[in-house]
Write a structure and sequence with these properties.
This protein is an alpha+beta fold. It contains 17 helices and nine strands. The protein starts with 8 loop residues before the first helix and ends with a helix.
Length: 487
Amino acid sequence: MLYRLYLTPLLCTAAAAAIGFYFLFSLAPVLVFILMFVSLLALCFFRVLALFYRGHRSWQLIAVCSTAVAAGLVLGICAANAGSKEIYFAIDEKRITAIEGVLLEDPRIISGGRSMVSVSLKRCAGEGGLRAGSRGEITVFFPQDSVLKLREFGRGTSIFAEGYLRLTETGWIFSASSLHIVKTAPAVERMRTGIRLNLIQKFDGKNWGGLALAMLVGIRDNLDSNLTVMYREAGLSYILALSGMHLAVLTALIAFLLRKPLGLKAAAITGSVIIILYCFIVGPMPSLNRAAIMYLLGVVAVLGALPKVSMSILALSFLIQIVFTPSSGNTISFILSYLAMLGILIVAKALVSLFSGKIPDFLLQPLAISCGAFLATAGVCSYTFGFLAPAGIIAGLIIVPATTIFMTGSILWLVLDIFSLSGLLDFPLSLLYRLMERTASLAGFVPGISGTNPFYILAISISLSLLIVTLEYKLRVKRLKLRAFHD
């Protein structure tokens, strides 16, 4: 596995962009200039060597990769600065009594029945009728009596809210005491909001309805808070957040229904359109967007325009996402999503190769994926949440397949509801819900790892990952030698 991860310009660009985005974004302009100058010198040096040693392809590759590294560093630093959410009020913050802006997302219900939403600032108002243009993104908290109105109008709506501004550790927050609708959202956004409201109404009253909404369209307002706690303590929170796993269920259904009647390429193109519409309805979610971009790039690869290499597709997806949505690169879901995919593509595949024939495939594949994702994200999870739950690796063997069946059943329930036959699936879906709830509850009783220095966790996870990949490499080399001997 290790020797198959050969260096390519695309991987170099993505790796350098990640370094620039997460570690070099705060460099002073002089240091950035020096860094670029050194990169240019290295480029010239390797380019000259490539000209003198035309027969040695390694020097040519190094010359190209050095160019890719320099370009990646510039791209990462620029994207990080473009994604910084600096707010400009144009009024003394202490005097601000109202704001006007556009809802960037659908409101989320939080504890106490209040709602939270990100708003793109347009204007601020202060004491004495003072008004001024403003810009930036700010988190706004609305009182409980505004929730229904916010949910009804949804993303894209222009609002005016009175309240007060306060500074927290995460930045500026506006606590609203009133809400006024200035302008409704565009027609397309209103249609999207109507679809979401219709889904909420359809699943209302079902004990499993909140989970279905969370897994199908990311609406977690009706999700049982006790279930959320169970999943978090069991290390299964990723199940409740829309990601590649959920998109995989949808794409598998699309492939199953369309591949035979349309053929591979036509089905892939049709699936792309469905995925784009799905992401539009769900809204901006970094982990889901990552999975969608990778799926679309996979379709391009199927059409012959890209090589069918998973690592290259992941690298290109990362570059696309930080260029078009740089602010998402700083979210924890974005970071965990890409780290998990790296763990699956490198560590999980190595584990499958190591234990192939020793563990049944139906257990080995999901177990390797869980272990690979867990090791790749352990350091970040420990640093961010202060807690790790290895029991989630084993519990996932039950929860993940059950979730796949539950999602498929929920989609089928919606189809049957058109013909007033959805009641046929109420009991099976309720049974599955109870199974997942019970499994998460039991897994939560297993002691986790808490209060540990996250850097120790990171060092251990990297060491274990390297050990697994190295053992797989040696085993593969040994197999190749034995094959050559027998031949």
